[in-house]
């Protein structure tokens, strides 16, 4: 099993998704590819959830293109926050999200321990 198959699952599903992105008008496809790359590194670790996210991302940008909504209006002023919010709709599941939660928990515990000593 190749690394791509592990990451994205069914190759046909991946090819269909990539064809959808390629068919998007100028700018929209570039935005999707950038967000896709970010989600591949920070998103869910299971192929099924990742493909569902990417399909939904393609849906969002296909609708935006059909409505004539500019990319900047879709993602807002902060593309990272957009991608993080988009990812949150699918719950925790990435190693990064888990590590962020562990860090928050550790700091909360440290704060509690210090408060208990006072």
What does this structure look like?
The protein has 118 residues and is an all-alpha fold. It has one domain (3-93): c-terminal domain of poly(a) binding protein (Orthogonal Bundle), CATH 1.10.1900.10. The protein contains seven helices and no strands. The protein has helices spanning 3-8, 11-22, 28-42, 47-67, 71-75, 79-88, 95-117. Helix 2 runs parallel beside helix 4 (47-67) and helix 3 (28-42) packs antiparallel against helix 4. The longest helix has 23 residues, at 95-117.
Shape: elongated
**SSE order, one letter for each helix or strand:** HHHHHHH
Number of helices: 7
Distance from N terminus to C terminus (CA atoms, Å) equals 55 Å
CATH topology: c-terminal domain of poly(a) binding protein
Q: Biggest β-sheet, characterized?
A: none
Spatial extent as radius of gyration: 18 Å
Helix share bin = over 70%
Key features of this structure:
118 residues; c-terminal domain of poly(a) binding protein; elongated
Topology overview:
Layout: H1 3-8, H2 11-22, H3 28-42, H4 47-67, H5 71-75, H6 79-88, H7 95-117
Brief summary of the model shown:
This protein is mainly α and 118 residues long. The protein has helices at residues 3-8, 11-22, 28-42, 47-67, 71-75, 79-88, 95-117.
């Amino acid at each position: 099993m190749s690394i791509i198959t592990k990451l994205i699952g069914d190759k046909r599903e991946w090819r269909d998704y990539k064809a959808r992105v390629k068919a998007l008008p100028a700018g929209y496809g570039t935005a999707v590819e950038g967000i896709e790359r970010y989600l591949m590194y920070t998103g869910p670790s299971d192929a099924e959830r990742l493909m569902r996210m990417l399909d939904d991302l393609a849906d969002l940008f296909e609708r935006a293109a059909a409505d004539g909504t500019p990319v900047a209006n879709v993602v807002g002023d902060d593309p990272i926050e957009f991608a993080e919010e988009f990812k949150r709709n699918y719950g925790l599941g990435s190693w990064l999200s888990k590590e962020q939660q562990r860090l928050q928990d550790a700091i909360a515990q440290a704060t509690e321990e210090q408060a208990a000593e006072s």
